[in-house]
Amino acid sequence: MSDTTDFFIEKFRRNLEVADESPRYFRPRPYRNAAVRFRKCSIDDFEKRRDILVNEAGLNAFLFRAAMIPGCDLLSDSGTTTMTMEQWAAMMLGDESYGSNEGYFELINRIEDVFGTGWVDTSFAMGGYSDSLFLFHQGRAAENAFFTILARELRELPEVPVPVLSDGLMPELKERIQSKLDSLPERRRSTDEAMFIIPSNSHFDTTQGNIEDKRMIPLNLPCREHLEKNEEFLFRGNMDLEELENLLAVEKERVPLVYLTITNNTGGGQPVSMENIRKIREITSRYGTPFFFDACRFAENAWFIRKNEEGYSDKSIKKIVHEMFSNIDGFHISLKKDGLANMGGALVIRKDGAFYKKFPHIREGFTDYQIMAEGHPTYGGLPGRDLKAISEGLRTVTHLDYLDARIGQVVRFGQKLSESGIPIINPVGGHAVYIDVDKFFGGTAADEDFKGIAFTGLMLIAGHRVCELGLYAFGSYDGKTETPPSPRVNYIRAAVPRLAYEDRDLFSVVEAARILADNRDRIPAVEVKYGRALSLRHFKSRFDFKE
Ligand SMILES: *Cc1c(COP(=O)(O)O)cnc(C)c1O
């Protein structure tokens, strides 16, 4: 008897070692549905969606009613997570006290548990309030607070660097910074004002917006492998270390801190290696420059390190996260991503790190800003119940079976798109698949046709929502000339909400995209009807098909 069952157990186990390849699945999802939501509209209503798209939304995907999307809404993975039963249960226990609510203490303990020691004061020596954790209602609010107060501190420096760049900069790098400076709107360009540079592997769009708003230069230093679209390289989110070293060697007074976005959203949701993190730490330490993460997808990044970097395959996700975060002086995070929550953000600064050493008085500025803009520091614009959901989300997100299922699904989606002849960024990142618009049109589309916008419009008519993150989102227009982003990025992003869709839903997106690919010559250009010269224009603009 036991021989027979052993035989089958062996067979069943072997089967799990075979990689899932649709339509054959060997391993069930590590969760099951506990609530479902029926659609209010039908996939068959194509004309209705066209009408809304053209007449109501002006072809802007952000302005299209979500309730009219019968397929996959892949506009963003931010705040779109399906929460777990444990999170919903935790929310019921939310403590809505004005000061020092229960959820705050829980979150402080969770931060130490997930990100390692040295971040927050768990002895609560200052009562229910920490001057290293600042809560906000979302990530960009944390960014706004951070850059507002930082800019104020920088204005008070005794010697401010005027905007004449050093000749010691690598020529290509200097050119890039200069063109960034030249592309700032006139009112933000002043010849006698200090000019500060915030480098990153690639800044997210709101981070870029917040930095520019404070008259600083956001500078992207993506690694060569990313620029060369090297499909063999598994850590395309890395930063170019040579350029960083050169920048700090000759312009360190201009660089208040160095950023690293993990995973690199703008660069394709690509992970950053532990080696890159460690080397950036070495370089920044040598110049006394603080080093921060934009940490939105820290757990997904850790999963890639575990899978693809030597020496990590037998380490737990939490251990890897601890090691990643041991290298930095602070981070801001949107808890709407790997917090698995629908709202929330935080700014976390190491108590004895390089940032507080460099700017010893800045913590008061953050606290004051927070009280003025978000509420008491112990809730920071969030209901107590949301703090509970965030703590619980941060616990779940570091589980290996969750991350295996999550990223495995995104990867299968990417593979299916590739097989259908749609060029994507390879290898696929953790939260989204990026379609390469330049390759999709085979170099035949003129920059100012904004065919990426036409693509997203046609996908909405098909019943699915994806997002242009390319020439329109990152380019700029001064009333006469259109300046494409530099370095050039031209993608459509299909971001996959966490725990929300099954593979078959995503595969129906692939089928719609395949129809566009098979008929790419028929995809029209679009005309910008409103907002082309505005800042953050992709959120506000309106378009029409040019036919
Ligand atoms: C989402 C995101 C932000 C901004 O966070 P919000 O919560 O959306 O305001 C910042 N950086 C990155 C990399 C992001 O993905």
Can you tell me about this structure?
Helix content is 41%, strand content 10%. 45% of the residues are buried. The radius of gyration is 24 Å and the shape is globular. The strands form 5 sheets. Strands 1-7-6-5-4 form a 5-stranded mixed beta sheet. A 3-stranded antiparallel beta sheet has the order 8-12-9. Helix 3 packs antiparallel against helix 15 (384-397) and helix 9 (241-251) packs parallel to helix 10 (274-287). The protein is an alpha/beta fold and 547 residues long. The protein has helices at 2-16, 46-56, 85-92, 102-115, 139-155, 171-183, 205-213, 224-227, 241-251, 274-287, 298-308, 317-326, 354-358, 362-373, 384-397, 400-419, 437-440, 451-462, 471-474, 503-518; strands at 133-136, 197-200, 217-220, 258-261, 291-294, 330-334, 345-349, 432-436, 467-469, 476-477, 482-483, 491-495, 526-530, 542-545. The structure holds pyridoxal-5'-phosphate.
For the CA atoms, what is the radius of gyration?
A: 24 Å
CATH fold group of the largest domain: Aspartate Aminotransferase, domain 2
Low-confidence stretches: none
User: CATH class of the largest domain, please?
Assistant: Alpha Beta
Mean pLDDT: 92
| Global structural class | alpha/beta
List the quaternary state of the chains. Answer: single chain
Number of helices: 20
**Hey, roughly how much beta strand do the residues contain?**
5-15%
Overall structural domain count: 2
Based on the structure given, which CATH architecture of the largest domain is correct?
3-Layer(aba) Sandwich
Helix content: 40-55%
CATH superfamily of the largest domain: Type I PLP-dependent aspartate aminotransferase-like (Major domain)
The small-molecule ligands in this entry are: pyridoxal-5'-phosphate
Q: Could you say which overall geometry the principal axes of the C-alpha atoms support?
A: globular
Distance between the termini: 72 Å
Strand order of the largest sheet: 1-7-6-5-4
Query: Biggest β-sheet: count, sense, barrel?
Result: 5 strands, mixed
